[in-house]
Amino acid sequence: MMLDDFDPIIDDVASEMTSAPVDANLARRVAARIAHGDVRRRSAWMRPVVLTPLAAACVIVVAVLVVRDKKPLVPAPAPIDAVAPERTTAPQGERVSEPLPARAAVRRPRAVPLPTVQEMDVTPIVVDRVDVAPIVRAEQIEIDPIAITRIEISPMP
Questions:
Q1: Element (H, E) at 49
Q2: What's the rounded Cα separation, in Å, for the pair 60 and 53?
Q3: Which end of the chain is more exposed for a tag (fewer CB within 10 A), N or C?
Q4: What is the pTM of this model?
């Protein structure tokens, strides 16, 4: 079958589905549902109160993943230049019960001595006392309530 062969089949099915007579009470039932306010509620997951924070959280997660810096915070240790072979035998004249561990040549940071600081002779400065005025307490302000007359709205015809 080719795609053109499906068109008459689809047309037949669509005409068969729409050929049923319309229920005479359909308009009355729809008007009654609107008058009673019988609105079908959305499911809990489709409410905007749930979807909005969920969407915001997804946007934040995506933003963090995209912007995240891939550089490590701690610099990588210096590479090992050379590894000394493991000594399994003791030098002549020494007795060793365990084999000596291999020693790795690791670069260690060089200790930098702190610079020497000369002692300073500082004379104190005499400053007059600063007086601060006490905090003034404000009087409480009373606001009269706003009076609005009731607005009557007639129902629509």
A1: helix 48-67
A2: 10
A3: C
A4: 0.22
